[in-house]
Specification:
172 residues, mainly alpha, 2 helices, rod-shaped
Length: 172
């Protein structure tokens, strides 16, 4: 019989075992390459395409978001400009309204003052006329007492009253 293997020879297989193992390995590799590799490649290609599609969608979404942000910022800027214009217009309108109200108040005050002056002047004239009548009646009564008789002629009374009033006015 053959001698028993010793040492490292125990781990080295026989040549026929190596050959048959290689033949089976090649058959399994061909079978794997023919049947399983196309399916794996299809799955990997599908996943790669899906990943690329998701990347493209993400880039498109980012681009859309950037455009929306730019549009929003433009609208915000326009709104700020419009708000500033509205504030300026409101301030100008307010100052115009104040100026109109002030001028109306001044003209109303001037009319009230003029009306009051006319009223005062009219009342002054009425008081003068009333005083002239009363002073005339008193002067006539006084003159009658002094002369001891009544002055009966109205023309004489009027001329006497007028001359007394003129004398009083000249003394002032």
């Amino acid at each position: 019989m053959t001698q028993a293997a010793s040492g490292i020879d125990l781990f080295i297989p026989e040549v026929y075992d190596i050959v048959w193992s290689l033949i089976i390995l090649v058959i399994v590799a061909v079978f794997f390459y023919k049947f399983f590799m196309p399916k794996f490649n299809a799955i990997f290609d599908e996943r790669a395409a899906k990943i690329q599609g998701n990347i493209a969608k993400a880039e498109q979404a980012k681009k859309d978001a950037d455009e929306a942000k730019a549009k929003y910022e433009a609208q915000l800027s326009t709104a700020r400009v419009d708000a500033a214009k509205i504030r300026d217009d409101a301030r100008a309108e307010a100052s115009h309204i104040i100026a109109d109200a002030r001028s109306r108040a001044e003209s109303d005050a001037a009319q009230i003052t003029a009306s009051a002056q006319r009223s005062i002047e009219s009342q002054h004239q009425q008081a003068i006329v009333s005083l002239k009548g009363e002073v005339g009646a008193l002067a006539t009564a006084l003159a009658g007492k002094i002369l001891g008789a009544k002055l009966e002629d109205s023309d004489v009374q009027s001329s006497m009253i007028d001359s007394m009033i003129d004398n009083l006015g000249a003394k002032k």
